[in-house]
Each structure stands twice: as structure tokens, then as C-alpha cells.
Design a protein that fits this description.
homodimer, 258 residues, alpha/beta, eight-stranded mixed sheet, 9 helices, 8 strands
Chain lengths: 258, 258
Amino acid sequence: MQTTTVNIIGSGNVAFHLVQHLVNIKSVRIQKIYARNPKAFQQLFDFHLPITNDISSLHPADITILTVSDSSIEEVSQQIPYSNQLVVHTSGTTSFEKIDNKNKRGVLYPLQTFSKTKKNLDFSKIPLCLETEFEKDFVSVQNFANKLSNNIYKISEEQRKHLHLSAVFVCNFTNHLYALGEDICKKNQIPFEILQPLIIETAEKIKNLPPNEAQTGPAIRKDTQTIEKHLELISDSATKEIYALLTNSIQKYNGKKL
Amino acid sequence: MQTTTVNIIGSGNVAFHLVQHLVNIKSVRIQKIYARNPKAFQQLFDFHLPITNDISSLHPADITILTVSDSSIEEVSQQIPYSNQLVVHTSGTTSFEKIDNKNKRGVLYPLQTFSKTKKNLDFSKIPLCLETEFEKDFVSVQNFANKLSNNIYKISEEQRKHLHLSAVFVCNFTNHLYALGEDICKKNQIPFEILQPLIIETAEKIKNLPPNEAQTGPAIRKDTQTIEKHLELISDSATKEIYALLTNSIQKYNGKKL
């Protein structure tokens, strides 16, 4: 298989997991990594990185991946010292048009939650959502993406924005519900680990069952007595409001045809 | 190991999964199952059940498990034709005092989400929360529970009520967020399966990381621009309200010391 050379720009969570994965792929070679603080990024790895804090020293690569924050994409992409090369960003919410148009632009959006503190992440299972400015570049991005993951999707900008929104619901908001659940446990000297099997089963269940069919609990049963008991148990007013709103939403949603 | 005889009262989701598990445990013998509609319950299994629709025909067993709905526990427990035996219910929200006091009362609350349509559930990993009226009965319930699961907890009524509340957050409400996420995908012709790896990783992540440390996304980053873009994308007003409330809650919660 032909070796693909890659420049990585940025040193955040996405860059960390990307680098960790790419070094293990034989047909990919990391040509250069640009980080504002090379030392700090290098320290996260136990192998030597080809890293620089001088973006103007980068040379063209088969693909350049911008992993910087959404608000920096425009400015940083202008500093890339070459043109007419394939440059993709990894943002769920940003148009490829934010990338300076001296290069051939695209998107490689990995749909996952990245934390540096959670190191063992199987990147090959992460869905990669691809888009390119020019149709003829799509195959190049696709070939590269296929080396990284078994889950490749062609996703338009409009779809990607909605996918990112959806991810906020199923990941960020869900995690916050875990935090609220843990809070209730802590206040009552209950080990939060008791809830682990339930949390995993809830997530696993919808692999085969649409979420609205998998819905259980007092809201869907219209068990008013339990709902009222629960509201009495919640001391925090913001948490009480979340309980009431989500309970209402479950009851309304269930009758709704999509 | 000594064989424990069991009577099961009720034919809902908990009874279904309990029976499916108990028949595979050598040291447990299902003595009788009471169901209002024995035929319907029998049809869920490909083996013959000792089942009756006449509760007065039940004989004492080592343990009697009431799996009926919370509101039926009191009435059905009065109809049990024996006394001074161990009778437990499986409810997260109900006091054991709802069980008629002619028997020795307790609770065996399996903390899991049960659907008949999701048949492959590993019961041995389900946390069982135990409580008994009399201290001397606890060992009997514990010995029985140890045959069923590797996750046994002694949980008081007050703790159990809060645990059940917490389960509503991490399971029922979480599942509803999955449903809202799926809704956004459907409206934009995005296959919901794209979100599966993210959903699983979000659930897996908190095995090792406390939820408030695992929090990612625009709310915790205080990324106002993305939050506003998201609110614009949401057409349904109830969903918009959920987005705003959970975003606020994440931002408030993070600074809060527990």
C-alpha cells in the first residue's frame, strides 16, 4: 500500500489521539507536527515526534490535518506555507470554507469524545465524516480515512452540523446526567459503581432497539406517584427542573410520529 | 450447595428475566409462578414452566419474589396463602412495609432496565440491592442473591429511593436524549448508527473517570458561538428548552464543590 504523508497542525485532544493512532499505521508517515508548545506535546508520548513550533517550516504533505480549535482554523490555515495541497479540518461545526482557499479544502470529522486522560481509545472504530470542496479530492481523503477507521461516511456540511448537535445530546448531555446521578449517590453514601451496569446496558440496548422503543421508567409509564416522590427527593432546584422537563418531554415525545 | 426453592409472583419484564436466569442455576428450583395470564407468559419461553393463575394454590417456598407493579404489591401480598415465610419485592421505590406483615419481609431490587424485547441480558452482572425487615433474615436473602449475581449490595430504603431516582437520570433520561439525538439524525437523513461508538465510549469512559472530569463539549468549554448555532438549528421548542437547561446546568455544576 502506498505511504501517505501527513502534517498535523495543533496539539489538543484530537491531535493526541490521532498521533497515537497514526504511528501504528504502516502505510502512513507523520511528516511534521506543528504545536505552539512542542515540549508539552512531546511529553505525552514515549516515542520521538517530528515536531516544530515554526509553522513556516512545514513542507507539503499528502494531507494536512488542522486539529486546532474552531475559532483558530481561519487564522492558522492562512499561515500554512504551501498551497494547492489537501488540507482538512476536524471540526464538527465549521465549514471547510474557513480554511484558507489557497489549498484544496475538506473535512475529516472524527465523531468521538476525546480526553487526554482516557488514553485507550480504539480509533479504528471511530466514525470519520468526510467532505471535500472538490469532488476529485474525495477519493484521496477517503483512501486516507480508510487506513484510519472502518467507519467512513460521506457527510455534507448541513448534515455534519446536525450530527454535531445530536452528539451534544447523546454524549455531552448524557455525561451530565451521569454527573447528576453520581451527585445523588454521593449525597446518600451510595457507591456510584452500582449504576455502571445500568449505564452500559442503556447504551448497549439501542444497538438493536430504537431509543423510543427502549424507553422505560416512571415517565413513560405515566407513573405520577413515583414522579412526585422523585421530585420531593430532589433538593437542588436546577436538578428538579431538569427532572420535570425531561419527564414531560418523554411523555410528549412518545406519542409523536416522526 | 443447598437447593433454594422460589415462588415468583407476577409476569412482567422482571419476572421474565428472573425466570430466564433462575432456570440455569442448579441450586435454585422454581417451585411455582403465579401469573394472571399463564398462557401468555409461558409463550415467552421454549421450556415448560410450573405456572398457575390461582394464587391460593401456592405452597411455602424458601423465598417468594413479588415482581408485580408497585401499586399492586400491597393487595397481591395479602393474597399469598401462607405466612411466616420470606417474601421480597423487587421495587426500587416501595417500602417493604407494603408487603402484608403476615410474612417476613424484604427487598431484592435488581438495578437494571428490563425489556422483554431485549432478551440477552447477563443477569449475573446486575447489581442486587438487598434489605430485610429482620436482621436474621438478611443472610438468607444474601445467600440466595449470591446465587443470582456477583454484585450484591446492602441498601437501606432511603438509599434505595435515591438510587432509583439516580437510575432515572442515568438510564431513562439518558435514553430519551438518545431518542432526541436519533430524531435530529432522521430529520437530516443521517444514519443513527454513526453515533453508536460515541454513545458506548461516553458510557465506558466513566468507569475510570468521574463524570464531571469526563465532561466535554461546547457547554463546558463555554463556547457561546457553537451553543448559539446549535440553538438556531433546533426547530422543536421543547428540545430547544432541554438544550438550554442542560447547557446551563453543565456550566453551573462544574464550578460546584460536592
